[in-house]
Design goal:
22 helices; alpha+beta; Beta-lactamase
């Protein structure tokens, strides 16, 4: 009996063992089928994909940035050039564990983890480096090189970076660079600009970016499993961009910036015959190099929040009342339309009743009786109130348009403003009010609704200086390739004749010389060169300091330079704009 039990137990255990072996075999066979199926799938369906990945992991193409073309002044002085800085990038296809790499990069480069993730995910080509940080120092480079295995896919690339030898000089002319955005990428499709590239964001850098950017090169490198370079397979050198020669004269630009100093305002100097801009100063300004090395968030916020708006180019975008500088246009209209003769006089008791409102002269006790020349020389407001009422708003606006007000000048910078020439229809449409005689009186002395830019006023005074030609201002003389061949020449000036008689122009020139010799612009007078011009003071709301204008040219008898000086909210109680213009001209002609 016991023997039979033991035999039965043994048979049962043997049966269980056989069952387990069979199950194991089934599992093994199923696993093999799954493995074979996966291998077949990888080989037959996705084989080509993984072959490409392996090839790209073995042979890496590293782009070589091209040096931007130089920006030079009219005499060949470098205003924008290049220096070599090191950048860190990551090749996404060589990163096996992004979550492990991210904290290491964050610590090594001191940049936001989420920003790194976004940059790596946004790239359309996982086999090209995505630049994470520019201008890294040698300590960071050493740290990364010593720990190569901890940073798979990370590359260090030497890049040409924009530099500005004279720092903030002519900043608004030159502009600055910044990382290309999606809108710019779409507009630049097919011209060699990729995500992460630096492109011009304002000024000459932006307008002529296509000429300046050059052509990228590349280096094909064999890398190991950690993305470390083993050897260079092939290399194509980048081609530098074209060089741009500006009309700016660095010497005059420096003088103008020094004389304006820390005042908020504008200085513009141009050739009245050709329209060439020799100096353009807008203050406050900024350091364009901040953007070349990758501007920090704190620096960017500081610039944006600065109440002085340092990024704004006041020369082309600042809109101001022209004040008494507008009297030049009123005189031209009155003489050409035979509304007044040069010898005609008006009396100035210091005030004039227009409708129910009293309009005052800047000279409280009045100027007495003056003729037209003396009215210009002493800038008598009451005289011009009376003259403006005779001429009328329509004719004043008509002649303002002849002198180029109310339209863009066409300067080769972007976002130029047009100013405003108000009419009775404009006021009814925009203010819901009719035009009053008081509005005409205000317009007569360049106050009220009228707005102009400093660049427009440079055209006005240039037209007087050159004998009645409205010239188109420009900033670029020529663009040259690497061999010195001229690609584009801008030197042929564009002019439009203003229908003014020679007698009107001669009278204006004589009167504007008198303004500086004995009138309101006397602070511009100096022993070096004779200057002609017109002053203006923009009265603002109560509690605000006025703006101060001077527009003029020199030498008076053979004009070679025209100038506009505008000082916002002048702190001095004198015509400081005229004084600044006089100092600039005396130093320049000296």
């Amino acid at each position: 009996m016991n023997y039979e039990l033991r035999t039965t137990n043994y048979s049962t255990r043997e049966g269980r063992l056989e069952a387990r072996v069979k199950i194991l075999w089934i599992i093994v066979i199923c696993g093999l089928f799954i493995l074979l199926g996966r291998i077949a799938w990888l080989q037959l369906v996705e084989g080509e994909k993984y072959f490409r990945i392996s090839q790209n992991s073995r042979l890496q193409l590293l782009p070589l940035s091209s040096p931007r073309g130089l920006i030079l002044d009219r005499r060949g002085e470098k205003l924008a050039e290049n220096e070599i800085l090191f950048s860190v990038g990551v090749v996404p296809s060589n990163v096996f564990n992004l979550e492990e790499l991210l904290p290491r990069l964050t610590q090594a480069l001191n940049i936001d983890k989420q920003r790194i993730r976004e940059k790596l995910q946004e790239t359309p080509n996982p086999f090209r480096p995505v630049f994470l940080k520019e201008n890294i120092d040698m300590s960071a480079i050493t740290y990364l090189l010593e720990r190569e295995k901890e940073f798979p896919g990370t590359v260090i690339i030497a890049q040409p970076v924009r530099s500005y030898p004279y720092k903030m000089v002519a900043a608004h002319v030159l502009g600055h660079l910044g990382e290309v955005d999606q809108a710019e990428l779409l507009m630049s499709s097919g011209i060699g600009i990729e995500l992460g590239d630096l492109v011009g964001k304002m000024g000459i850098e932006k307008v002529y970016n296509l000429y300046l950017q050059g052509e990228k090169g590349g280096r094909q490198v064999e890398v190991d499993a950690y993305g470390r370079s083993l050897r260079i397979i092939s290399e194509k050198d980048p081609l530098p961009g074209n060089n741009i020669y500006l009309t700016i004269d660095l010497r005059i630009q420096k003088i103008a910036e020094e004389e304006l100093g820390q005042r908020k305002g504008v200085v513009l100097i141009g050739d009245p015959e050709t329209g060439e801009i020799l100096a353009l100063v807008s203050h406050p300004n900024f350091d364009p190099y901040l953007f070349s090395r990758g501007i920090s968030e704190d620096e960017w916020n500081r610039l944006k929040q600065d109440s002085g708006s340092p990024l704004e180019n006041r020369a082309i975008r600042g809109e101001y009342s022209p004040a008494s500088t507008f009297k030049i246009i009123l005189v031209a209209a009155a003489l050409e339309e035979n509304i007044i003769k040069k010898e005609d006089t008006f009396s100035c008791p210091g005030r004039l009743l227009v409708g129910r409102r009293i309009f005052k002269c800047w000279k409280e006790e009045g100027h007495g009786r003056l003729d037209l020349e003396q009215a210009i020389i002493h800038s008598c407001d009451v005289f011009f109130y009376q003259l403006g009422l005779k001429v009328g708003v329509e004719k004043m606006i008509e002649y303002a348009e002849l002198f180029g007000l109310g339209e863009a000048t066409g300067l080769n910078l972007i976002q130029e403003k047009w100013g405003l020439l108000p009419t009775s229809d404009w006021k009814l449409k925009n203010k819901g009010e009719v035009w009053y005689r008081g509005d005409t009186a205000n317009l007569s002395i360049g106050q009220g609704y009228i707005l102009v830019t400093p660049l427009q006023m440079l055209r006005v005074i240039s037209a007087v200086a050159n004998g009645g030609n409205l010239v188109k201002p420009y900033l670029v003389k020529k663009i040259e390739n690497l061999e010195g061949g001229v690609i584009k020449d801008f030197s042929s000036s564009k002019k439009k004749k203003i229908s003014l008689s020679s007698s009107t122009l001669s009278f204006l020139k004589k009167s504007l010389r008198g303004v500086v010799r004995e009138g309101t612009g006397w602070r511009a007078e100096n022993r070096i060169v004779k200057i002609s011009g017109k002053t203006g003071t923009v009265e603002l709301s109560e509690g605000k300091r006025p703006h101060n204008w001077f527009i003029g040219y020199a030498p008076s008898d053979n004009p070679r330079l025209a100038i506009v000086v505008l000082v916002e909210h002048r702190e001095e109680d004198i015509s400081i704009a005229a004084q600044i213009a006089g100092k600039i001209f005396s130093q320049t002609f000296k």
